[in-house]
Amino acid sequence: MSVKRLASLTVFLLIGSLVFSAIDVKEADDFYDQDAFTQAEQALLVQLDKAANPEEEAQILWRLARVMVSLGDDLDKEDKAGRFALYEKGEAYALSSIEKNPTPFGYLWKSSNVGRWGQTKGPLNALGKAKGMLEDLTVIVNNLNTLDSSETWYVLSSLYDELPGGMISFGNKDWAVSYMRMAMDTIESSLLYPGHYKKLAEELYARNWSASKRSKELAKMQKDWQKASTNLEKYRYYEGKDAGATKPFYSSVTLKQMSDRQEAEMVLSYVLEKAKVFRPIKPTDTKEIKEIEKLRDSWI
User: Fold this and answer.
1) Which N-terminal stretch is annotated as signal sequence (predicted)?
2) Where are the chain's structural domains?
3) Own/partner pairs for 168-174, CB < 8 Å, 24+ apart?
4) Model pLDDT for residues 213-266, shown as the tens digit of each residue
């Protein structure tokens, strides 16, 4: 056999072995997309046994971490022990995924599980976890330069919105809005994510800037946007990147032409109309849409 033929055969066998040993996460992802979280977990555990290398293991492990967030969220709010156990399990899966092969997903779902754990424990415990969460999210945005992860921006927004500011912690309501706008602008077309709309609307309604105040503040933000040196810093001012000239996809006017509360109501009305024609609608989407209807009615 010639060297050339031997080399070709070796490459063929190598490719074949990779194909046959590769994990298949489609079934688990389909279950997850259908909100069938227990089935997704079971499918992932089967695939974990088939993983042939650290990279494949990492893919399974961050998905398991993601599932733990959803399983924990599905439990009764009074079942704190059950929630703690699932979020801690999710954090362990994410840590293992990062150790096997660091990816944005590993860091994202680690911070998500830690955040849920802190929210369940209470404000003081959430404060204790905040710094570690920010470090993980900073790795995603700065070190790994991942800017298209809607979930990452959502978690960043939640972190800055829910934490106190000043001398107590690093919370900042304005930065939270900017990060949430980035979360909105990076939603995949195949996903509805009504919770994102609700979150942005709540942040805007609470901030309550008038149109004139917006125009002034967004002009200031533009200068900070232009001066920022890292992604994390820069996107704190995403809202004012063009001094409010942006026209959101759900609006017929620019940011500087409306107040926070006008936009908040507009955001909710938009997603309620979108939900009427969007497919597929998940059970979690339906639940959030009902909450959005109540919220909008309370504002009108």
Assistant:
1) 1-22
2) 33-146, 159-300
3) 168/127, 169/127, 169/130, 170/130, 170/134, 172/236, 173/203, 173/206, 173/207, 174/207, 174/217, 174/221, 174/236, 174/239
4) 999 999 999 999 999 999 999 999 999 999 999 999 999 999 999 999 999 999
